[in-house]
Amino acid sequence: MRYMKGKDKHPNPTVVDLAQDILLRTTIPLDNHAALRSGFAGYPINPRWNVNKVRAWKTGRQLRQALQEGELIIRSSDSMLVPSDNEQEGISVCQIPTQPYKWMSCAEWVKQLFTNYQTV
């Protein structure tokens, strides 16, 4: 049997850090993890992305939506994003409040950057 790179039908799942203290086990390739995080964070789509990155971005958006609707929860033991039906199995879970992303102008961002900047 010949192994063809990139043609693995069942890749091993990896753990992705979607946001601070939110992890996800996924089979999405490493090249598309940034797009997945971007969709989860609520950023707009990048017009230069290929089809695979757009799919990862859409998956991130769907994960955020499912978290807000209570279909997914964050397991308190390991901060893993899991389906909410695991709560009935006796797994300790917690639902964190989700806040919409705050958009700011470039001037506001620079002002905030300078306020938090510390010289050594």
Low-confidence stretches: 87-101
Range of strand content:
15-25%
* Overall outline: globular
Order of helices and strands: EEHHEEEH
The CA-CA distance between the termini, in Å, is: 59 Å
Strand order, biggest sheet? 4-3-5
Query: Count of DSSP E strands?
Result: 5
Task: Please give a structural write-up.
By secondary structure, this protein is α+β, with helices and mostly antiparallel strands. The chain has a domain at 12-86. Helices cover 32% and strands 17% of the residues. The chain contains three helices and five strands. It has a three-stranded antiparallel sheet with strand order 4-3-5. Strand 3 and strand 4 (81-83) form a beta hairpin. Helix 1 (33-41) packs parallel to helix 2. The protein starts with 13 loop residues before the first strand and ends with a helix. The model is unreliable at 87-101 (pLDDT under 50).
